[in-house]
Amino acid sequence: LNGYLSALQRNGIPLDEALTVPGDYTQSGGRAAMERLLALPARPTAVFCANDLSALGAMGLVREQGLHVPADLSIVGFDDIDEAAQASPPLTTVRQSPREVGAVIADTLVERLHGRSTPVGIQLSGQLIVRASSGPPRRP
């Protein structure tokens, strides 16, 4: 979310709060969030979900509404869980190393247990895994 907000600000694009829909990181939460987005007067052409489970739920709802991923709407997740590659269509996602995430969490916890301050924001590297759920929007 912070990256999205920063990109908008850097490019002078005002935030449309209707496009940032909270979820609960579950498939049902992804479906509910996507339902809100599809009800907007100007439906988005692409959606980034906070995790792959939410993205899979969102894709399911999009299909049920008679829309096609990615022709009508691109969907991207985050995590690269095993199910992402098996989805129909396979889900574009961002992969982070679970080992790197775990190491940073453990190091931060140890530092805090010893009373030492830790960075407020920690950035980890990620890798965009492009699959078939993303592409250019269909022309009107």
CA-atom Rg in angstroms: 17 Å
Q: Can you give the mean pLDDT?
A: 94
How many distinct beta strands? Answer: 4
- Widest sheet: strand ordering: 1-2-3-4
Class by helix and strand content? Answer: alpha/beta
Q: What is the chain-wise order of helices and strands? A: HHEHEHEHE
- Quote the beta fraction: 5-15%
- State the distance separating the first and last CA atoms: 29 Å
What's the shape?
globular
Helix content: 25-40%
Poorly predicted parts: none
Please count the helical segments: 5
How would you sum up the major sheet? 4 strands, mixed
Question: Would you kindly provide a brief summary of this structure?
Answer:
Helix content is 39%, strand content 11%. It has helices at residues 2-10, 27-38, 52-64, 82-86, 98-113, and strands at 46-48, 74-78, 92-95, 127-129.
Describe what this molecule looks like in 3D:
The protein is globular. α2 packs across α3. β1, α3 and β2 form a beta-alpha-beta unit. It has a four-stranded mixed β-sheet with strand order 1-2-3-4, covered by helices on one side. The protein is α/β, with parallel strands linked by helices. It contains five helices and four strands, in the order ααβαβαβαβ.
